Amino acid sequence: MYKYLLLLLLPSLSIYLQLTGQVAKRFDLAITELLADPSPSVGLPGYEFIELKNISPDTIALLNWKISDGNSTALINFNYLLQPDSFLIICPIAAVNLYSVFGATLGVSGFPSLNNEADIISIYSPEGLIIHAVGYTDGWYRNNLKAAGGWTLEMIDPKNPCGGSGNWSASILNKGGTPGTNNSIDGINRDDQPPALIRTYTIDSVTIVAVFDESLDSTQAANSNNYCLNDA
């Protein structure tokens, strides 16, 4: 009898752990699409949005998660449960009804304004950990017409969340984007080459700046044990 009782409780236990403090890890969620310049519209609502994808194998409760561009921060105050391999559109409250026709949508008060030319948008877990961040520029569209407005930036391969500009491009769908569904440019875009050191220079007697040929994982880059200095 106890074995069957345990099996019945396991699904509830899984959700309970998410609701009561299971800590998300870096890249469990990723920002996989964003609309920084909705005007002129080619088919999407005239509001900015970001799309989140749950890349982890676990259900993630989004209560008290934060979205920030460094200047303003929005708090998710609704306990939405994002299932594995699922998408969620995050937008201003005024745009919820417009975006909900495309997929699961959650409106937040104080949605950060996404700069058209360049910005950094980050998502934080309730513990204050940066789970994913995207520092985009309008050069990522690879198309001057689409960079002028109405088209989203889409991630190519969500399993390469730190791929930078090489893993993003403008949507190729005729309505301007794919909020809430697989991206129009979705594909495999692995980063099989480790970052290469280009140069170093000093800015004072105790600080050395190392310049690499691609973006680094901030957690690994901040670990001093990953560096070795010699007297050569």
What level of helicity do the residues show?
A: 10-25%
Report how far the terminal alpha carbons are from each other. Answer: 70 Å
> How much strand content do the residues show?
25-35%
Arithmetic mean pLDDT: 86
Question: How many alpha or pi helices?
Answer: 4
Number of strands: 14
Contiguous low-pLDDT stretches (5 residues minimum) are 1-21
Oligomer: single chain
Kindly name the structural category.
alpha+beta
- Describe the sheet with the most strands: 6 strands, mixed
Radius of gyration (Å): 20 Å
Mass-distribution shape: globular
Helix-strand string: HEEEEEEEHEEEHEEEEH
As laid out across the biggest beta sheet, the strand order is: 8-7-2-1-11-12
Provide an overview of this structure:
With 232 residues, this protein is α+β, with helices and mostly antiparallel strands. Helix content is 13%, strand content 29%. It is built from four helices and 14 strands. The protein has helices spanning 2-19, 96-99, 144-147, 218-221, and strands at residues 29-35, 49-54, 60-61, 66-68, 73-75, 81-82, 87-92, 105-108, 118-124, 130-137, 153-155, 168-170, 197-204, 207-212. The strands form four sheets. A six-stranded mixed beta sheet has the order 8-7-2-1-11-12. It has a four-stranded antiparallel beta sheet with strand order 5-4-9-10, with no helix packed on it. A hairpin with a 4-residue loop joins β4 (66-68) and β5 (73-75). The longest helix has 18 residues, at 2-19. The N and C termini lie far apart (70 Å). The model is unreliable at 1-21 (pLDDT under 50).
